[in-house]
UniProtKB/TrEMBL annotation:
Keywords associated with the record: Ligase
Glutamine amidotransferase domain mapped to chain residues: 52-195
Entry's Gene Ontology molecular function annotations: GMP synthase (glutamine-hydrolyzing) activity
High-level lineage: Bacteria, Bacillati, Actinomycetota, Actinomycetes, Micrococcales
Pfam families: GATase
Protein name, entry field: GMP synthase (Glutamine-hydrolyzing)
GO CC, any one term: cytosol
Keyword Transcription regulation: no
The protein's Enzyme Commission number: 6.3.5.2
SUPFAM superfamilies: Class I glutamine amidotransferase-like
Amino acid sequence: MTRPFLVISTRESDAATQDELRSTLHLSGLTADQVVHWRLERDPLPPLSELQPENFSGFIIGGSPFNASDTEKSAVQLRVEADLARLLDWIVEHDAPFLGECYGVGTLGVHQGATIDRSYPEPVGSTWVTLTEAGLADPILAGVPQEFGAFVGHKESVSALPDHAVLLATSGPAPVQMFKIQNHQYATQFHPELDQEGLITRIGIYAHAGYFPPEDAEQLVERTRQQDHPWPRVILQNFVRLYGSGE
């Protein structure tokens, strides 16, 4: 690997951010020296001439407490959205590798004209994902079975994709679980970067954030301990394998 991946976080919680980076490295097979980690909620992106996005193998954005469909947004959220839109302008123009996990649906979706709303929320826990014919043929999903379990937990989702987007995966609760733009931009509604430890950590951190009744936290933790979803992480591993050459 000649160029690092840029891993972008948008979580104001230090514990959530550190755990998301831990699980991203662990599940992808990347090492710390193969990534540049950027806390976008804390550090604004510089002008692209300074960031030099062409020097990264690809871009990975994890989940977020921010929602594109929020009716009231803080100054930090508005600035994060503007920074990501500016970066996505460059990524889409250059057809650069991008993997947006959960929050990626909102960021890439909004950027490309998808309808993002609260029509298909999913509670914190597990869902069953089904690949479309396009998904079965896509290299980022190589080795992934047509149906698999994944961790989810989101308030918003895609209710309509633009015509130029390719639907790669769906589910009963959320009809758009994964889509593709051009050749190399991907977004998932589920979490490829999330393992049991990570979901348990987030349950504790976001117990009062409106994802579930706080009194259900202990039950959710126990349920998570009984679940393991190995297939979504293959997507993350494939992304690194496909684009990690830095070419």
